[in-house]
């Protein structure tokens, strides 16, 4: 695999629009997406006719139209020569940047605009509708499978095979909350800190997952936009952060199908419910960047349950397989002194919306020294994990303040 | 085996599926799974079978995962397996399931080497990883006749 694309592509404009479900005007994802895109283009200082590519993550569930990209480019009045939606569930958000980087590296465009947006928290009953998107309609949904119960299949095996305890998982919830307390837009900011005991005493949702093990749906909508360009043009822009390395790996669709799949990484030797495409993605990203987990100053994961964050800490290389529990209990992600992890509060306490490109936005803002929440000092390299479809599709992006190759 | 109720939805007829209160708009079942639902109607658990590889496959398979042939046949499984993973649901996925909580969904590892997502019923239980499970057919909350697995002594 060639890796000469690492550190050749830069983010030169970022934008984000955020709305709350109680706002006087109920915002649509298209409104938010257009607002964030305009902001990113303004920051990049480029004209509409310079946008060579438009890539969006999966169509917003709360704005289900065919050809969502056309609605967005029509609103922005841009005429991209390369234009598509990147699916792969939540993995598609970072996938938009990967596709943009490829197009830029190939020289077929000079600027790529990447947008993800969602306002399900304003327009939909996500608790009761989401299972219809996460489960197979013939072989899973009729059994009454809720979204947590689908992820819980992984939790059940992961905890069984590695001896992970509910208290270890709960530590993730506690530390995510500690970060959220510092973020003005975090869904759970007003709820105060929580303890491991609070998590273990919260009501059972789908065993072994209790309420405080679960992500909270963001009570509103968020759109995030990024403008990318090549190194030769990046110097013309006020500021830039660099796509040091990235990777992507999808393994299956539907949890039941995952157990009937094998023969490729990470399930070469047979089906299981413990290794995901995140580890494969992270290996690609580290190899492309030349960095190692020791070089990472900040990490974000889109894992929507506490146990899955332990899995992702392992797969992103911060500890060995099965060691996620010991890692966090030993202070690995402590707000005080640990790896800055899910620094807005994560899906568990900031809230889940729009595939998680706002996690990348957070890392870029931390690098700019403009964090909305707690400012982590000296952020030079960060890793962002995006995923979707009960641990089916994974993308990893390593960004750096300066080129690292 | 319990008697299929007259209330049961005929999957093989391809009725539209509601996921909770939401119409999802996909034709169900898909043509390649009609044989599975026809089997369920007759209290048989059918899997796909590749004669070239002598391998049983998940009922959704269109091609053999190993050799790629589309020449797959239906074959009735023993209906025996073990609990591979499970979750006891305390907050229902949709309104129809609310009266049933707590209920358990999970993955059963069939003796034929195929894994199915299913409903586990403790009979006599307990539902734990590795516990033996045997198929039964029940009309579940949304009115669909579904294969379920009774967990405990076989």
Task: Describe this structure as you would to a colleague.
The complex is a heterodimer of chains A (405) and B (154). In chain A, 35% of the residues lie in helices and 18% in strands. The two termini of chain A are 16 Å apart. In chain A, helix 1 crosses helix 2 and helix 8 packs across helix 13. Chain A is an alpha/beta fold and 405 residues long. Chain B is mainly beta. In chain B, strand 3 and strand 4 form a beta hairpin. The model of chain B is unreliable at 1-6 and 19-27 (pLDDT under 50). Chain B is globular, with a radius of gyration of 16 Å. Chains A and B meet through helix 5, helix 7, strand 5 and helix 11 of A and strand 6, strand 7 and strand 8 of B.
Average residue pLDDT of chain A: 94
- Helix-strand makeup class of chain A: alpha/beta
Unreliable stretches of chain A: none
Order of helices and strands of chain B: EEHEEEEEEEE
Number of strands of chain B: 10
Please report the distance between the alpha carbons of the first and last residues of chain A. 16 Å
Sheet-strand content of chain B, in percent, reads 35-45%
The largest chain-to-chain contact, stated as pair and per-chain residue counts, equals: A-B, 45 and 52 residues
Descriptive terms for the model:
heterodimer, A: 405 residues, alpha/beta, 9-stranded mixed β-sheet, B: mainly beta, 5-stranded mixed beta barrel, 10 strands, disordered N terminus
In short:
The complex is a heterodimer of chains A (405) and B (154). With 405 residues, chain A is an alpha/beta fold.
Describe the secondary structure blueprint for this structure.
The complex is a heterodimer of chains A (405) and B (154).
Chain A: E1 9-20, H1 29-44, E2 53-56, H2 68-76, E3 82-85, H3 91-106, E4 111-118, H4 120-123, H5 126-129, H6 131-134, H7 147-162, H8 166-180, H9 196-201, E5 204-206, E6 209-210, E7 220-230, H10 231-234, E8 241-250, H11 255-258, H12 277-289, E9 298-301, H13 306-315, H14 324-329, H15 346-349, H16 357-368, E10 381-388, E11 393-400
Parallel strand pairs in A: 2-3, 2-4, 9-10
Antiparallel strand pairs in A: 1-7, 1-8, 4-7, 5-6, 8-11, 10-11
Helix pairs in contact in A: 1-2, 8-13
Chain B: E1 18-19, E2 22-23, H1 34-41, E3 46-50, E4 55-57, E5 72-76, E6 80-89, E7 103-110, E8 115-122, E9 132-139, E10 145-151
Parallel strand pairs in B: 8-10
Antiparallel strand pairs in B: 1-2, 3-4, 3-5, 6-7, 6-9, 7-8, 9-10
């Amino acid at each position: 695999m060639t890796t000469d694309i690492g550190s050749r592509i830069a983010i030169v404009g970022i934008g984000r629009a955020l709305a709350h479900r109680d706002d006087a005007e109920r915002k649509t994802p298209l409104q938010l997406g257009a607002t964030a895109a305009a902001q990113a283009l303004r920051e990049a200082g480029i004209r509409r006719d310079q946008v060579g590519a438009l890539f969006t993550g999966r169509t917003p569930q709360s704005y289900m139209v065919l050809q969502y990209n056309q609605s967005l480019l029509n609103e922005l009045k841009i005429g991209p020569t390369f234009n598509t939606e990147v699916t792969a569930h939540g993995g598609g958000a970072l996938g938009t940047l990967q596709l943009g980087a490829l197009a830029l590296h190939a020289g077929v465009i000079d600027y790529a605009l990447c947008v993800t947006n969602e306002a399900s928290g304003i327009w939909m009953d996500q608790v009761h509708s989401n299972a219809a998107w996460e489960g197979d309609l013939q072989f899973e949904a009729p059994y009454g499978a809720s979204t947590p119960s689908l992820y819980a299949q992984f939790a059940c095996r992961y905890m069984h095979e590695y001896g992970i305890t509910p208290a270890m998982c709960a530590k993730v919830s506690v530390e995510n909350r500690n970060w959220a307390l510092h973020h003005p837009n975090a869904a759970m900011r007003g709820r105060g800190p929580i303890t491991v005991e609070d998590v273990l005493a919260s009501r059972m949702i789908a065993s072994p997952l209790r309420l405080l093990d679960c992500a909270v749906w963001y009570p509103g909508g968020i759109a995030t936009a990024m403008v990318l360009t090549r190194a030769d043009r990046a110097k013309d822009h006020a500021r830039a952060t660099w796509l040091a390395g990235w990777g992507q790996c999808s393994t299956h669709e539907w949890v039941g199908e995952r157990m009937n799949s094998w023969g490729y990484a990470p399930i070469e030797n047979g089906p299981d419910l413990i290794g995901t495409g995140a580890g494969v993605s992270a290996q690609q990203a580290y190899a492309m960047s030349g960095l190692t987990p020791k070089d990472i100053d900040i990490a974000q994961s889109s894992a929507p349950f506490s146990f899955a964050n332990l899995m992702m800490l392992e797969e992103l290389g911060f500890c060995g397989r099965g060691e996620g529990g010991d890692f966090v209990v030993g202070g690995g992600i402590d707000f005080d002194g640990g790896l800055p992890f899910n620094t807005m509060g994560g899906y568990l306490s900031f809230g889940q919306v729009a595939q998680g490109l706002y996690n990348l936005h957070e890392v870029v803002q931390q690098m700019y020294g403009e964090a909305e929440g707690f400012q982590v000092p000296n952020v030079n390299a960060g890793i962002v994990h995006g995923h979707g479809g009960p641990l089916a599709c994974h993308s990893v992006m390593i960004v750096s303040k300066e080129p690292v190759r | 085996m319990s008697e299929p109720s007259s209330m049961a939805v005929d999957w093989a007829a391809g009725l539209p599926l509601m996921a909770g209160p939401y119409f999802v708009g996909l034709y169900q079942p898909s043509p390649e799974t009609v044989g599975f639902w026809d089997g369920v109607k007759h209290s048989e658990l059918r899997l796909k079978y590749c004669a070239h590889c002598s391998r049983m496959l998940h009922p959704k398979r269109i091609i053999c995962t190993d050799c790629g042939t589309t020449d797959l046949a239906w074959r009735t499984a023993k209906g025996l397996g073990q609990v591979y993973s499970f979750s006891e649901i305390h907050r229902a996925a949709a309104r129809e399931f609310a009266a049933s909580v707590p209920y358990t969904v999970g993955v059963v590892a069939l003796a034929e080497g195929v894994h199915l997502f299913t409903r586990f019923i403790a009979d006599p239980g307990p539902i734990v990883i590795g516990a033996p499970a045997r198929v039964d057919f029940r009309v579940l909350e949304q009115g669909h006749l579904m294969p379920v697995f009774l967990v405990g002594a076989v």
